[in-house]
Every structure is written in C-alpha cells, then in structure tokens.
Amino acid sequence: MNLTIRPGNPIQGVLTISSPFPLPGDKSLSHRAALFAALALGESKIDNFLDSGVTKSLLKALRQSGVDWELKGNGLCVQGKGLNSLQASELPIDCGNSATTMRLLAGALAGQGVSAILDGSEGLRKRPMDRIVNPLQEMGVPISASENGCAPLILQARKPQQKLRGGTFSLTQASAQVKTCLLLAGLGADREFIIREPVASRDHSERMLRAMGVQLQNPDPLTIALTPSEKQLKPLRMRLPGDFSAAAFLLVAALITPGSDLWIRGVGLNPGRTGLLDALLAMGGNIEVINKPDQAGEPIGDIHAQFSQLHAITISGNLVVRMIDEFPAFAIAATVAEGTSLVRDARELRFKESDRITSLIAHLNSLGVRTTEAEDGFSIVGGSRLKGTKVQSLGDHRLAMAMAIAGLVSESPIQIQSAEIINESFPHFGELFVSLGAEMGWQG
Ligand code: S3P
Hints:
With 444 residues, the protein is of the alpha/beta class. It folds into two domains: 2-24 and 241-443, Enolpyruvate transferase domain (UDP-n-acetylglucosamine1-carboxyvinyl-transferase, Chain), CATH 3.65.10; 27-227, Alpha-beta prism (UDP-n-acetylglucosamine1-carboxyvinyl-transferase, Chain), CATH 3.65.10.10. The chain has 13 helices and 24 strands. Strands 22-23-1-24 form a four-stranded mixed beta sheet. A hairpin with a 2-residue loop joins strand 16 (286-295) and strand 17. Helix 1 (27-39) packs parallel to helix 6 (204-211), helix 7 (244-256) packs parallel to helix 12 (397-406) and helix 10 runs parallel beside helix 12. It is globular, with a radius of gyration of 21 Å. The N and C termini lie close together (5 Å). Bound molecules: shikimate-3-phosphate. Shikimate-3-phosphate (S3P) is lined by residues 28, 31, 100, 175-177, 180, 324-325.
C-alpha cells in the first residue's frame, strides 16, 4: 500500500489515551511485558499493550512455545506457568520482522534449555545475531547462527542439570536487546552474572525484572549484576506508557509545520529513550514537558510542542544511544533547521531495519536536501524547501514515517510505497495524523 501526504495543514490537538487514535503503547515495554509475564508464575494483566506487527510476532511465538494469552483491545492477559515452562517447538518459530522478538526470545529459551529454530522475514535475516550468539555460546548455550552471523538461529536442548555459566560479559556495543537476552539466559545461571556496557542503553528490562522480584544491582551506571535464584517471577499488573519513539514523529511534525500546536499526554520518558527531546530543545524547539507520577515503574509525562525556528546541531557520543531509534525523525528536523547538522558515532544505525545511514541519505537526497555520508554518521544541510517525491519504505517503518512527516512541509505531495510496514510499530499512523489535521491517505 502507498501512503500519500499533502503539505499545508498544521498539526493541532491534544492526544490522550481516550482519543479516537491514541498514541500507541510502548513497543519495548510491550515486548518485555508479554515475554516476562510468560516466565512469571500466575496471571499478568497488561493495559495499553501495543497491538502491532512486531508484537504480534512475539505473541505468536509465545503461543508456539506453549504460552496461553488473550488480547482484548489493548489489554493483554498472560497465563504465566513459571520459569522453565516454555516448550520446545518442532516447527521453526517465525519472528517476522521483529529483531526484539528474536533476540529476547533466544535468551529466554536458552535459559530454559529447550530446542528451537528462530527464523524471520528476509529483512530480519539480514540483522546481526552474532552479538547474542557469541556471548550465549560463552555461557554454554548450544546455539548457532548461519554463516553470516544472522538468522536462522538453531538452539539445541540442554540437560536440565546443565546450568549456564555466570561470570562477566563485556558488550562491544550498547544494546538493550543484547543486554536483555543475556539477562533472561542468566536468570538460571550457576553464579553471579555481570554485564558491562560501553554506554548505558535503555533500562526497561532491569526496572521490570526488579519489580518481578529479580535481584539486580547496578554497582555503577554501566554495570548490571544479576544474582540468579530459583524463586519464581511475580506476575505483572500494569498500564504501559505511550511510546516515546512513536511520539517522536508527532513531535517533529509539530515543530516543523507552521501553525502547529500539539499536546501528547502519557508519553514514556525513560531517560535512556529521550535523547531526541534534548536534541530538539538544543535546536531551539518550543517544547514543554510536564512530568507525571511514574507508571509501570517508568517515568512518564505530557509533552507540548509548537512550531519553532530550529537551528542545526551536532550529535555524537552517549546521546546517540539515547536516541538510537529517532534518527529518521531527527533527520527531518535537521532538513528544515538553519545550518548544517552533523551526526557522528552512529555506525549502529547501519544495523537497523535498513542501513539507516545509507537509506536516510538516499531519501533525503530525493527531497533535494544536500547531505554527506560518513561511515559512522552523516551531515545534513538544512534550510532549503523540500521537494515532493515518491520513495520506497525499504521495509523500514521508521524511514517510512520520517518521509511521511517530511510531506507536511514539502513543496508538493510525497508518496511512500509499501508504507504498510508502518503497522509494524505504529498502527493507525495515517489516521492519527489525519485526526490532528494532516492530509494523509492510503491507496492500493
Ligand atoms: C530495543 C532496543 C534497540 C532499539 C529497538 C528496541 C529494545 O535496539 O533500536 O528498536 O526494545 O530493547 P538495540 O538493542 O539493537 O540497540
């Protein structure tokens, strides 16, 4: 399906949980809540669960592993049967387009010692899995990837008395998915299990696992120490915050489109996720944040954004990790900002749903934007009027959404082909924008 966006209309309104098209629930937290609930003992109830392509992949994979769950609207109910309750499945488990599903589930299954084959879409088969396979093998997990270090992953069964090895594992890249995979495998390790990260990645798993009774310490901000135990995890009762990474597109849309004035209520504000807020504020964004009491053990708040004259910025170092999913949205802000924006230390973008350095540069060039590409980032010369264009989504939901918000301020319409990929993380994206005044429509 194609999504066409016509420029001209401002983005206005107040988005709340009861809006006809509300901000979707947090993707990272939805994955964790469903999977951790499956490992807990008892019934978990999770509200504002993200019902989208990637989370459906996880839910289907859980069912195939013997987990009972029911999704009614955005309420997920999971009947957790405790640690070591996941079942081996003969047929390959299809993780669809979801790297989070593959990496987190691999950790959980490895911890339980059951056999499985984890596979996925053509796109997922290109994502690096050696980053989980190597440390899992070090722990004693009989797991292998294909020759290029990607899926399919083959996990062999382990004897129940064969515990995985604890110890210290130093990650070479900051990755919450790798960290979570190892924590899940480490739940039943033979001794203390320590993970060190080069830069702190989002800590959703640590917060949720602690709330479920797991003993996790942070001797310093880059180190997580897990004390394995036979104790069962407590079930979850929580309402998930709105997804900051989805809000990012609304936020940038409001800042760049003249006349815009938007409130987004109930957005997750985990500091490991909100790097884009800091970047946009430093660019002169007219943004106000009102903090609210924590929800589901996570900071949340309301965000108010109005049209602003933005100026260029340089992004590097730790900030890259804190906004790792937000570069497509950021790039559109940079195209309208005054001056040349630079991104460095961001080689990790090459391993996302597309190579987000090359694909962003190609798509920005088709908008008539001057750019340069580096191995670990790019530069964007802002301030010129964007041209209308037709582009492919390249199987990358965030690239597609970024091009959609560019269409709010381009000279003529922008069409994104195969844009249904957006449903992987942001169902009703087009409808939500239309409800705020944008002219967007699906064809085909
Ligand atoms: C995620 C972590 C990040 C992020 C992804 C979701 C998570 O990936 O890009 O969208 O839920 O843990 P990495 O762990 O590969 O950085």
